[in-house]
Write a structure and sequence with these properties.
The protein has 627 residues and is α+β, with helices and mostly antiparallel strands. The protein has helices at residues 19-27, 72-85, 107-125, 171-188, 213-222, 227-305, 335-358, 362-368, 378-422, 425-436, 439-457, 487-510, 514-518, 532-548, 562-577, 585-605, 613-620, and strands spanning 6-12, 30-32, 39-41, 48-59, 62-67, 92-100, 129-134, 146-152, 154-157, 160-164, 312-314, 317-319, 324-326, 464-466, 469-471, 476-478.
Length: 627
């Protein structure tokens, strides 16, 4: 253990002390006391290891110790300034600190310890400090390396001496300095060699106190013991008696302590044995928990993934491709085997899941995320199972939809190709325009035009018109279900009815005499090219002509009766002389045709320029009857 010694003394003028002499002795130099002119030279004394000086420097309210390298002249001037500052004959010029430096430290560590200690005192009290390390004298104890510190009793500020530092005179400050030195030294010393507080032995033998002049004279004069010596001897005898009792008590205490230590050792052994058993039991429980965790984790992965090639989950069992794990035999499995089974199962699931994710489209893979599967926990990996399955199902449905759409498009293209082959260039252009219109308007147009043709024809073989319905031979069209029909379906129905009406209307027109056919205002040679409204007008004209023509005149003109020819001539003459009557259908149709004009017919043909075909028909043809 290192020596713990530190002493703080005052360098007083009343004791005949001189600051220049003390500083010269400290630094082993030659200095002159400029106040008296005396020169103090300690250069031949020797034993100096290192020296230095620290002065305080205050920056922004914080004091820092700054090393100063003073010349001889500066040191003599500093000592003179201190001597002149202290006016009284009993003034304290400086504080001297003497402490033993641990010989266990190397020289560079001793130097570092001395500098840190000096800086601490300078920064704490804001005083100047001169320090020096002296080695032991020749023939002395080689462990006696010691540190000298000279501290100014006044604060130093901007190179001037300030107020007295009264804290250095307090006993509590002496203890604080000793504590600071011990803490700093212990930071450098190894464990087991650190400084400790000195303790007094209460059982130490008391020493004879100072007897005084009277007691000494009495003993020399009479040869007897003085009263003070007798009192000391009585105290010594009492101390010896008490010491023997204390020693016996100490022996008993030690025996009791030995017994207690033995009991404590036995108790500790029992406690260690109990703790070992508990630790063993805890380890067994931890092992069982870990086994159960691995078994449960493997079982959960297999149960949630549902892939027979990887494994199957049954009650209390896990059926793997190469083995079967049973919960009832869990204690027989080693932890390493269960870890291997778990890791193998997880790797298989990760590879299979990675393969399934790789088959998904890029947008689905972005939904899952780009984090590697190996970094996921079991719960995170299990959470991906339904997501991947749902995305796979969605992708399967999308593929089915794409396949169905592809087939539908192929059928549509085939139908369009066939339709294009059957129709001329004008019909294709017209269909292209009609296709741009809203589908709902086209549905209404096809439905009502078909309904009107069927109603005007009155031929059950073509179709029957009822309220809100069209009864065709192969199907029934209902107005209430019009939104459920596709545009292609209604168009096909319309075209089929139109072709049948054209055939039937051509047949009925061919049965008219030439004079009757001449009354028809529409071109009957190309009946299939007639537009829808004109075609309906043609149906009305044919019906009107059929009403005027006797049923028996369906043969050639030579078989017509003279009455019919006269009636026709009479009506033609009447038309020239009188305006057409409302009851006569033929003049009314001609007048309406002239009134409407060719522009109306062209506007009707271009159905893409009107909002609603049915409303347009009604507004331009008020005489037509619409359901």
């Amino acid at each position: 253990m290192a020596i713990n010694f530190l002493r703080l003394d005052s360098l007083g003028r009343s004791q005949g002390k001189v600051l220049a002499a003390a500083l010269a002795y400290l630094e082993r130099e030659e200095l002159e006391d400029r106040r008296t002119g005396l020169v103090y030279n300690y250069q031949k004394r020797g034993g100096l290891v290192a020296k230095g000086a620290f002065f305080p420097q205050v920056e922004r309210g914080e004091c820092r110790a700054k090393e100063r390298n003073l010349s001889r002249q500066e040191k003599e001037e500093f000592c003179l300034a201190v001597e002149l500052k202290e006016k009284q004959k009993n003034s304290r010029l400086a504080k001297e600190v003497l402490t033993a430096i641990p010989a266990e430290l190397p020289q560079e560590k001793q130097l570092e310890l001395a500098q840190i200690f000096a800086k601490k005192l300078v920064e704490r009290y804001r005083v100047g400090a001169f320090w020096a390390i002296h080695e032991p004298p020749e023939g002395g104890d080689r462990r006696n390396f010691h540190l000298h510190l000279l501290l100014t009793t006044r604060e130093l500020g901007s190179g001037n001496l300030g107020q007295k530092v009264k804290a250095l005179d307090a006993k509590s400050e002496m203890q604080l300095i000793k504590k600071t030195w011990m803490e700093l030294a212990n930071e450098f010393l190894p464990e087991g060699k650190r400084l400790e507080e000195p303790q007094k032995d209460p059982l130490a033998e008391p020493k004879l106190p100072h007897l005084g002049r009277e007691a000494t004279w009495f003993e020399r004069k009479t040869g007897k013991k003085s009263r003070k010596r007798l009192e000391f001897e009585a105290q010594l005898k009492e101390w010896q008696t008490l010491t023997s009792e204390l020693r016996e008590l100490e022996r008993q205490r030690q025996e009791l302590e030995r017994q207690w230590q033995e009991q404590e050792r036995q108790r500790q052994q029992q406690e260690q044995k109990r703790q070992a058993e508990q630790e063993k039991l805890r380890q067994e429980q931890e092992l069982a928990k870990e086994k159960y965790r691995l078994f449960a984790a493997t079982k959960k992965l297999v149960n949630r993934y549902k892939n027979p090639q990887i494994g199957t989950d049954r009650e209390g069992e896990i059926l793997l491709p190469d083995q079967t794990l049973k919960f009832s035999e869990l204690s027989n499995y080693s932890l390493e085997s269960l870890q291997e089974v778990y890791q193998t199962t997880r790797r298989k699931i990760e590879r299979d899941l990675d393969r399934r994710i790789g088959q998904l489209p890029p947008i689905s893979r972005q939904i899952i995320g780009l984090r590697p599967l190996k970094e996921l926990t079991d719960d995170g990996l299990i959470g991906l199972f339904p997501t991947v399955a749902q995305l796979e199902q969605s992708e399967k449905e999308e593929q089915q939809k794409r396949e169905a759409e592809r087939k539908r498009l192929e059928q549509e293209l085939e139908r369009q190709r066939q339709e294009q082959e059957r129709q001329a260039e004008r019909q294709r252009a017209e269909r292209e325009k009609l296709r741009r219109e809203q589908e709902e308007n086209k549905k209404y147009r096809f439905f009502y035009v078909t309904k009107k043709m069927v109603g005007l024809m009155g031929n059950p073989q073509i179709g029957t018109d009822r309220e809100g319905e069209i009864l065709l031979p192969d199907r029934t069209l209902k107005l209430s279900e019009l939104k459920g029909y596709s545009l292609e379906f209604l168009e096909q129905s319309f075209l089929a009815v139109r072709r049948q009406v054209e055939k039937d209307l051509s047949r009925r027109i061919s049965q008219f005499p030439p004079e009757i056919r001449g009354l028809i205002t529409h071109p009957v040679t190309e009946i299939e090219k007639i537009e829808n409204l004109s075609f309906i007008d043609l149906i009305r004209e044919v019906k009107a002509l059929e009403e005027l023509t006797p049923k028996k005149t369906v043969r050639p003109l030579k078989k017509l009766s003279e009455n019919l020819q006269q009636e026709l001539e009479r009506r033609q003459a009447q038309e020239k002389l009188e305006p057409a009557k409302e009851s006569d259908p033929l003049p009314r149709l001609r007048e309406r045709k002239r009134r409407r004009g060719q522009q109306d017919e062209e506007t009707l043909n271009q159905s893409g320029t009107v909002d609603h075909p049915v409303r347009e028909y009604r507004s331009r043809s008020p005489d037509l009857e619409w359901d």
